[in-house]
TrEMBL record:
PANTHER family assigned: SLR1927 PROTEIN, SLR1927 PROTEIN-RELATED
Superkingdom of origin: Bacteria
InterPro entries: DUF58
Species for this entry: Candidatus Abyssobacteria bacterium SURF_17
Protein name (record): DUF58 domain-containing protein
Lineage, opening ranks: Bacteria, Pseudomonadati, Candidatus Hydrogenedentota, Candidatus Abyssobacteria
Keyword Transmembrane applies: yes
UniProt-listed Pfam families: DUF58
DUF58 domain: residues covered: 188-310
Keywords: Membrane, Transmembrane, Transmembrane helix
Transmembrane regions listed in the UniProt entry: 28-49
Amino acid sequence: MTWEAVGFFALTAAIFLAGFNSGNNLLYLIAAVMLGGAIVSIIAGRINLAHLDVCRQVPSYLFAGHPFSITVEIANRKRFLDSFGVEVEGINEAHEPVFFLSIGRRSVRLYDTRTAVPKRGLQTLPPLTLRSQFPWGIFTFSKKAADSREVIVYPHIRDVREMTSGSGFLRDEYPRHAKGAGSGLYGVREYRHGEDSANINWKLSAKLDRLIVRETEREEERRVCIVLDNLLQDNSERAVELFEKAVSTVASLVWHFCRSGYWVKLLTHTVVVGYDQGLDHMHRMLIALALIQSVTADPEKHSLEREALDGATCISVRCDGEVHITGQRNGVAARKFSQRIEAEDA
C-alpha cells in the first residue's frame, strides 16, 4: 500500500467520523463515494495488468563486463481493453523501470536497451516485474513475469594482440615445407606414367614441350596449447582477483587464436579440451572457462607445462599473474617470452 493510499483511507475515515458525529448525510455520501472509488480502482488495476505477457531477448552468448543489447517485448492479450501506465522493472543492472503509457489491445510493444553482467559463470537474470498505479494512483499493482532465466556468461575479453606479438614467434610458428595435399605450390617436375592427369600444368607443359606436373605443399596446422594453472595457493582477495584476471587472459587468448584459424587446446588442472578449431570449439572452451573454479591442491600432482610439450606453442597463464609463452620444436623449448598480468588491468 502506498502513502497515497494511506492518506486516502485516512481522509475517508475522517469524513465518515465527521458525518457520524454531525449526522450530516452528505458526509456519509462523500465517504461512500470515496470507498466506491477505491473498490473501482482495485478492480480496474487488476484488469489493467491481466493478460499482459513480457519477455526479453538476449544474445546467444554474453561476456562479463561487456554491454549487450536486450529487447523487452510486452504483449497485451486482452481482446477489448487497452492497458495504461505500465512499468517494467528488472531489465537492467541500474534497475531503472521502463514506462509504457499505453499498450493497445492485441498489440505488442518493444523496448531496446543495453546492460552488462559484471561476473562470469552461471548467472541468473532477475525476473521482470510489471507495475501499475492505474487508474487513480492510489494503489500499486504488480505482477511477476515468468522470465527468470539462467545464462552462461563468458569471461571478460580483452585485446591480447600486443602480448602474442611480443613473443616474436607466434606469427610464423616454425613453418615446415613438405609435399602433400594442400593448396600451396611445392614445386614442379616431369610427368610420370600412370599419374593423375589433373595435376598436369598444361600451360607450362606447352612451353617446355613436355608434360610437367604441379606438386602441392602440405598445409601446416598452426597449433597452440593454452594452459591455465588454476592451482590457487591462498584465498585472499588479491589472489582471487589475479585468478579472475588469469581466466580473462586465457579466454582472450582462446578468442584470438580460434578466430585466427589456429588449432587450440585448453589445459587446466580440472578441465581439458583437446585440439580442434572453429567457432564451435571456441565456445566449448569459453563455456569451460566461464564455469571453471580454482583448486587448492592437484590430486594427480602433474605438471601442466610438461603435458603441453607436444610440439605446439605453449602459452601458460598462472594464478599469480605470470604469462609464459614457449615455442616448441620436438619437445624442446626454442624461444621464451614472459610478462605479468596486473590486477588493476581492465
